[in-house]
Amino acid sequence: MSGIIDIIKTRRSVRKFASQPVPDEIITALLDAALSAPSASNRQSWHFTAVSNRAVIKAMADSVREEIENLKKETENEEALTAFSSYAGYFTFFETAPLVIAACFIPRPNYINALAGRQIRPEDNLEQTTAIGAAIQNLLLAAHSLGYGACWMSGPLIAEKRISGLLKLDGLRLAAIIPVGAAAETPRQPKRKDTDKLTARII
Ligand SMILES: Cc1cc2nc3c(=O)[nH]c(=O)nc-3n(C[C@H](O)[C@H](O)[C@H](O)COP(=O)(O)O)c2cc1C
What we know:
The protein has a single domain, classed as 3-Layer(aba) Sandwich (NADH Oxidase), CATH 3.40.109.10. Helix content is 44%, strand content 12%. The protein is built from eight helices and four strands. Strands 1-2-4-3 form a four-stranded antiparallel sheet. The radius of gyration is 19 Å and the shape is globular. The chain starts with a helix and ends in a 5-residue tail after the last helix. Flavin mononucleotide binds next to loops.
């Protein structure tokens, strides 16, 4: 494989993993790639927890399953429930990976609002949530270039509070769960929007 564009184009979300452990030097390289991402004012308001402990990973998946069941009990909309039930498995498959990385950001009030003493910008945490996205993508690309599969998952955030408790993520917000391992599948590329449609609006 050669070049960053090839790495970007051939990366896929991998959801099936071989059980062999991910070596420590690979874990270090993945985290180093994540930490190399750009961030507003170079604040690096992020935090990564790499979990290889099977019991902890299972407890994380159990908490996601329980929250899914709680949500199902609460929902009265049958149609939404059927749709949700069909993809709930996409929230928990991370438990089959030998390594699971919890990507967090450190929440902060919007600094422009703090400076002005009034709400100029509606969102807090925009810089933090976008920067953690860049870090996650770096990590996914690094995994792919090193011969490992990974997947960016927000589904498990349904159990954010309980996962934060399990991993002791005090003061952090969980942005994604990323299972990593040797791929046990070769996913096909999901269709992308055509570039000419994306560039239809030229102002
Ligand atoms: C913010 C975000 C959240 C995602 N959450 C999940 C998830 O919870 N479960 C899952 O199976 N895939 C998840 N994905 C992966 C997407 O389904 C996947 O990126 C998309 O289908 C395109 O496929 P590709 O990554 O192979 O190009 C997520 C991706 C992103 C960027």
